[in-house]
Amino acid sequence: MFDWLFRYANPARFMGLSGAVLPWLAAATAVVLGVGLWLSFSVPPDYQQGMTVLILFIHVPAVTMAAAAYGTIAVCSLFSLINRHILADVAARAAAPFGALFTALGLITGSLWGRPTWGTYWVWDARLTSFLLLLFIYIGYMALWSAIEDEVKAARAAAILALVGAVDIPIIHYSVEWWNTLHQGESLLSGGFSPVFLWPLLVMMLGYGLLFVTLWLMRIRTEIVNRRARALMQRDAA
Amino acid sequence: MGHLSFDMGTYGVYIWPAYGATVLGLAGAVLWCWLGWRAAKAKLAALERGAAPRPNRESKT
Fold first, then answer.
1. What is the ipTM of this complex?
2. Could you write out the three-class secondary structure of chain A?
3. Whole-angstrom Cα distance, residue B10 to residue A93?
4. Which among A4, A75, A96, A187 counts the fewest CB atoms within 10 Å?
């Protein structure tokens, strides 16, 4: 079923393919983010939130990508545990710093949005707390990778942690339905957006998605080169 | 869709730091990726030329 995937998961083939795709991805990212910013700063003030609605265009893409990056890690970890594929380990590890960054940016921008709209930077409600937990899971995941010297053991331990931590993703998503939270309920998929705000948001989300893929591929390539260098050093030392 | 507007009024104190943190974070990630890639390539090239640096914990990224 996944034969086509494993064909491209060969590190040498991956390096060739990603090397060809990356300049185009980087250019597309710059263009889409530029258009997204232009659209964002062209919206009229919201009738309730005024100009603070502009934070929407960086907050929602950040939290979406934080969850998407974790989903990427979880899927790669599953492949790593089942197929023991080296590129799955590398791909899972490479996504973590960007997921942590998007989570931190989601928390910072959300906090700065919360003060003028809710009257507070932070409350310990279910959505905010479960999202903060995601940041700690990311930090724990990266720390685990760095703490274990043996890369095979590190990959296995990190993969198990990633799959256990994946429980937090549906909790984050459904927290606003399961509990009474200060954070508003889901409004993007339920059609609660005016097109004036929806289009800039969708373009910014696409831009963040492209940026994540670009940085992720760059980081995978870097890790493959680092592993090659380590293998050469070990060979020379032997 | 209106014209470009950078007048945030009294909300600027929340909006600009949010955008500032975002730009700083994303630009930092791009720079970190780029420098990491250049360093990794340089190290591999040096090893392949035979000038092998000694292994250390920093190389385990």
1. 0.91
2. CCHHHHHHCCHHHHHHHHHHHHHHHHHHHHHHHHHHHHHHCCCCCECCCEHHHHHHHHHHHHHHHHHHHHHHHHHHHHHHHHHCCHHHHHHHHHHHHHHHHHHHHHHHHHHHHHHHHHCCCCCCCHHHHHHHHHHHHHHHHHHHHHHCCCHHHHHHHHHHHHHHHCCHHHHHHHHHHHCCCCCCCCCCCCCCCCHHHHHHHHHHHHHHHHHHHHHHHHHHHHHHHHHHHHHHHHHHHC
3. 42
4. A4
Q: Which of residues 123-162 of A touch B (CB under 8 A)?
A: 146, 149, 151
Q: At residue A91, what is the residue type?
A: A
Q: Report yes or no: A77 at the B interface, CB cutoff 8 Å.
A: no
- What are B23's two structure tokens? 């730009």
Instruction: Report whether A102 contacts A212 (CB < 8 A).
Output: yes
User: pLDDT tens across A97-134, in order?
Assistant: 999 999 999 999 999 999 999 999 999 999 999 999 99
- Domain residues of chain A, as ranges? 15-237
pTM of the model: 0.92
Interface of B with A (CB under 8 A): 1-9, 11-12, 14-15, 17-19, 21-22, 25-26, 29-30, 32-34, 36-37, 40-41, 43-44, 47-48, 52-55, 59-61
